[in-house]
Amino acid sequence: MDRLDIKLWSLAARGHIVPERSLLKTPKQIAAIKKSAALNTAVLDHVEAHIHAGMSTEEIDRLVYDFTTSHGGIPAPLNYQGFPKSVCTSLNNVICHGIPSETEILQDGDILNVDVSTILNGYYSDASRMFTIGKISPRAAKLVRVTKECVERGLHAAKPWGHLGDIAYAINTHARRNGYSVVEDIGGHGIGLEFHEAPFVSYVTQKGTEMVLVPGMMFTIEPMINESSPDFFIDEDDGWTVYTEDNGLSAQIEYMVLVTGSGIEVLTK
Ligand code: MF3
Ligand code: CO
User: What's the structural domain count of the chain?
Assistant: First the structure.
């Protein structure tokens, strides 16, 4: 046992949830995952530069596929558990996992989450942004603004040797204060060596609960914020698209972060 093992062991003995050592990335792994994350960010920048009213979400899929593969990467969603496209595009009342389509045309007033995940040299990265098309309603604008604030507050609540629940508490409190709700059963995840690693990251848990944030851990902060009910249903035909139960708007922003000895580093900005 080294000093870190002893520290983790004593935290566990006091009832804290601690990560397996395998979830703590080595400096070499971190360097490789950062390259993947940099490409992932470039893909999102590429989408940002080309998104416009009148284009289909299928065109966004092509932008993602072409840009990623021409830079030596692989879009992680493609064929992941049968997902048919290279990116998730979630429009208005779609919470997440929307499938790009030739017949889905972006229109003035839409809000769209584009969730990009990349494999580079076997290492995984994942981040999403909200895009607004043309002039959006004050109602939609507020949801997008508050979602961004939620993620920023979650980020600021995170610190090495704190808990995942500190992040969740900050996010959920800010969402509720604005009359919104946070989706409960779909959350974030560890990432880096695989697309989805432990831990599952909830955004509705309490301060001081859930896994301890140990330097070397990597995970996503990606709350889904609904303007009214947090309830959802999954499209029976495609098996993927997650809709708000009450047809309200939903927004999501995703950062991929690394816990370091001195703080939390965002890898996807
Ligand atoms: N970026 C999404 C997530 O991890 C990917 C969902 S799986 C997919 O939260 F197959 F839909 F891409
Ligand atoms: Co993710």
Answer: 1
Q: Does 166 map to a domain?
A: yes
Q: Contact at 8 Å (CB) between 232 and 52?
A: no
- The reply to whether 173 falls in a domain is yes
Closest by CA position to 129, among listed 230, 47, 39, 248: 47
139 CA to middle of ligand 2, Å?
26
Q: Indicate whether 2 belongs to any domain.
A: no
Question: What range does the domain containing 64 cover?
Answer: 7-268
Where does the pLDDT of residue 33 fall: very low under 50, low under 70, confident under 90, or very high at 90 and above? very high
Among protein residues, the one whose CA lies closest to atom 11 of ligand 1: 97
State the Cα–Cα distance between residues 252 and 188, nearest whole angstrom. Answer: 11
Strands (E) located in the chain: 74-75, 88-91, 94-96, 111-120, 123-132, 181-182, 188-190, 197-201, 218-221, 224-226, 232-234, 242-244, 250-252, 255-259, 264-266
CATH of residue 57 = 3.90.230.10
3-state secondary structure of 93: coil
Q: Give distance in angstroms: CA of 97 to centre of ligand 1.
A: 6
Establish if 1 belongs to a structural domain: no
pLDDT tens digits, 39-88: 999 999 999 999 999 999 999 999 999 999 999 999 999 999 999 999 99
Neighbours of ion ligand 2 (CB under 5 A): 126, 220
